[in-house]
Every structure is written in structure tokens, then in C-alpha cells.
Amino acid sequence: MKHPSDAPHSIYGVEKWGKGLIEVTEGGEIGLRNPLAPDAPAISLPGILHDLDQRGIKSPMILRISSYLESEIAHINESFRDAITRTGYKGSYRGVFPIKVNQQAQVVDRIVEFGKQYNYGLEAGSKPELVIALAHRLAREALIVCNGVKDAEFIQLAILSRKIGFNTVIVLESPKEADTVIEVYKELGIEPLLGVRVKLTNQISGKWEESSGDRSAFGMNTDQLVAAVDKLRDAGLLHCLKLQHSHLGSQVQDVNDVRRAVGEACRYYTELTREGVPLTHLDLGGGMGVDYTGEKKATENSINYTVEEYCANVVETVAYAMDEAEVSHPTLVTESGRAVVATSSMLVFNVLESTLYDAPNGPKAEPDDHHMVSDLAAVHGYLTRDRLQECWNDATFYRNELRALFRRGYVDLRQMARAERIYLSLMARIKALVASEQDETDVDDQLEKLADIYHCNFSLFQSLPDVWAIDQLHPIVPLQMLNQTPDRRAVLSDITCDSDGKIDRFILADGVSPSLPVHTLPEDEYYMGVFFVGAYQETLGDLHNLFGDTNVVTIDLRADGGFDLLHEQEGDTISEVMAYVEFDPSDCVAAFRKMVDEAISTGTLMAKDRKTLMSAYRDSINGYTYYE
To answer: Which pTM was predicted?
Structure first.
């Protein structure tokens, strides 16, 4: 894959996907720009890592940028405000953040802090999330929207919270849930603030299509909706039903899907109004996407609209539908999660070592070698640009034949070792010739099978679960040496003992590639960054091979080009992850000590070695789960 460009770093497409937040500095390093201080110089990300390392904070780590979170919240709220003003819309906007997208305390606390000026609220999809939401002092007009399956205890807490000033909306997901609300109301004697979730028939396109349409998991169809409304009317609670919720979908790729879904939601809203339901709020759920690739197209990891365009489409569509139906403009609510937090976090890790699939020099065949070893070595003699494909074919044929001969016992170990080394030296020359060509060759795609493996200090399953589970793409780029042309291509392997623990799809300037351009590893640390991981990745990770949470650092970018360390959360120790899987670390220490003492009794261990062995065990059990 060719990447003609004046600047070596342009192959990574940072200027396409970086959103003006990530750029390459003149020194060839990834720099972070402060959106709240546009004139401030970019701050070197490797420089931040060096500073944190001096403070004793090591990679791998999740690095959260508080400034990015504040900027995205402002961007969405102000874009809705501007669209409302421009359209002449007669309602207002009240966004809520869905806690499930990132439940980390440092994230939720800052969202509440930054969102207060916009009356920004929270969405709780479970009882634990409602408990979290109620622990925050929200703005007076902010909403807490309760979605998901709810038991009586959940509903009771939501209703009671209104007594201390929370605008807690219970969104009914089914007629049965309406029955539970009615029962709890009769016990408490306190009126609830209610919403109703309506399934739209419109189905979005792309990876998340099943999150929309009438086969989606949550909400009511038209028949169930009417039944729920009748139950509330019979119970004398219809006047409590103020909000209609209709989820547009997740990571909506195409802005036209937004228009269609909002239009259908408006039809339900106006019809419910005609039924006598005193609705005041229209909640359009989540769906605002993130352009991970920078393509600006309606593809699985990109979107064909901006935040401003999304907001304008929503406001204009609702305004037109309500005016046509002669219904008052409702307060607009959205539950954007991914668009709020994705850009605010990045995963940073160091490369530990590499497995290379070429070699600078190859040995000569020896007189007693099988003739195919000599035939393989002879390819060097006619390897030229115009015979690249021929030489690739010959080298591959001889290598495969020799491997078959080795398996059948006709070639010994040392002959096979020489053959493999000769083959790798041929691959090095072929790679060099291909790299010097300006045009694509047929050999380019074949060389992707010989990409190196860079072994990296992270767990895919813990820190990037969506990359493993659903082929989510995130921008990945080396953090340094970007003013030098990459001389190798690699896939990234994590340190779990699992063949699935690798990344082999990468966003480049000219599309998605099965390998990443990288540099020969320097003597100093070589860092990689995975960007836009703030949505879901910090919450969904598992304990594969008992690799726990990484260190987490929250920083704020200053206007003078520096940064402030706001918070540090140390990563899990081995003893902590053992406890997660029901092992008592103290019991393990006691069991190990018993075996050590038995070894001393039998004479297989010297008594003087007991202290060293026990210290090593205790140091490990209290240490970081990642490579140190």
C-alpha cells in the first residue's frame, strides 16, 4: 500500500480523524491541542508521558483529557442552542449523559460539573446508575431519565427523589411497568414524573441497526403504547406522563436516518397529544456518532454529518412536524454518550519487543544441503524490480517445499534453519524494492502476510474490548518518530496468552489497512496511542489472564501549553484481581509459605533462601498486573 506524501506522518491520517485535537508537532511527536485555548501550542504527548513517568506513573495507562470532555459538552449544547435560535424553535434543549457509556466517577463528576451551565442531566439505565445519579447535585432544571427494566425498589427511589428537588423521569418500557408504577404510587401517595418509550419502525443502517426498529430490545409497540396510556388514565395518572422517549439508534452513520427517525417520533408525539396526553418533552435517545476514521462517510466507523448538522436536522424536523400538527414545541432531550466522551480518553502503551519477518543477511547454502536450499539462495541472483512477482513465487515455493521435506525427515534442523534465514533475507530485499516503487504492485498485498508482530504492554480484552468483540476501529498511531519514514509494517499483539489478543485493522490516510506502518524499535521506549476510547472501553473490559485495570490519569490542558494533573487512579494489583475472581490473597500467601517450609524440611530448599522466595511472592502479589 503506497502512501505518497511530503510528510512521513501523513500516512496515518491524523489531520483527517484528529478533530483539531490531535496533531503531529514539528518534532515528529503526537501533540494535544487545547480546544478551550485555540491559540495555545500543542503539548507533546510523549512529553506528558515523560513527566508522568518521573512522578512514578507508568504505562500502560488510560489518559483522560478533561479539556476535551468540557469542549464536547459545550459543543453539543451550544449547537442545539444555535439551531434553536436560527430555526425560531419555541422550545429548549435539555441533554442527558447516559452513565452506561462511561461510569467512571472522574468522568461522571466532570460531566456534571461542566454541564451545570446547560442544565445538563444524567440517564440511568439501572438501579446502580440511578444511585450514582442521585449522588450528584445537578442543576435545578436538569433531568434524570430512568430507562431500562425497573423493579418496585427502583421506581420507589425514583419517585421519592422528587421530594428533594430531582427531576427524575421514569420511562415506562412496557404496560407491566406501568402496573408497577401505579402500585408504588398507591403505596407512597406521591405522584411520579413519567415518560413512555416508543419503538420506532424506522431502522438505521450499519453495525448497530438492531438497536433500532420494531425488533429493538426496549420500548413498546403501538398496541402496547395505547394499553399503557389507558392504564395511566384509569389510575388517574395520565397527567404525570410528560415525556416521550424514542431511541433513534446507536452510532447513526447517515444523517438522513436521523431525519426519518425524528419524523416518525414526532408522529407518535402528536398522536399522543391528540389522545389527551400532556406531553412536554421529546427524548430522541442516543445515536449521535463519532467519526473514528475521518472519512466523513456513512460507514461503520464514520458518519456523514457534523454535530452542528445533527442538531439542525433534529430541531428543524421537530419544528416542522409540530407546526404542521399545531402542537406546541416540546423540550428536546437527547442522550448522546459516545459523542460526549469518546474523544476524551486515549490508551497509551509501550512496545516491549518485536518479531520480525525478514532478515538483513542470509547464509550461503552448504555443499551437503538439499538442492532446494541452493535453489532458494539462487533467487538472490535474479531479484530485480521487474522480476518481483517471479522471485516472490520462487522463494515461497522453495521455502514451502523445504518445510515439507523437513516434516518428512529429508532435511535436518540446521538445513531448515539456513533455509528460513535465506528466505527472510529475500523478503527483506523484496520489501525494500517494493517500498521504492511509486505504484502499487501485485506483491504489496502478499507482503501484508509478512507484517512484523510488535508485542505491546496492554490487554486487548481489558482496555479495548470492542476492538476484539465487534471489530470497532480506533485511530492508532506511534507517538514519536513521525518525522521519519516508517521502515516496517506490523500488527500489534498484547501480552495476554491468547491468539485473539492482537490488532490487525488500522486507520490510515487512504483507508483501512491490515498492518500499521511503524519504525524499527529504537533503544528508548517506543509508545503507541489508541485514541477516542472514552466510550464503553473503560467499562466493558474483562480480566482475561487476570490483567486488571490500567493506571488512569486525568489531566487538564493549560492555556500556556502545559498541563495540570487532576487525578491519578493506580491500576489493579495482582492481589486485587485475585479477589475479583474469589481468591483470598492472604490464603494464597499462607499456602505458598507452607509449601516453602515443606521444601526446607525435605532439603530441596535451603533455609537461607526462604526470605528471598517469600519476598518475591509477596512483591508479585502486590505489584501491577502489567509488564514493569
So the answer is: 0.92
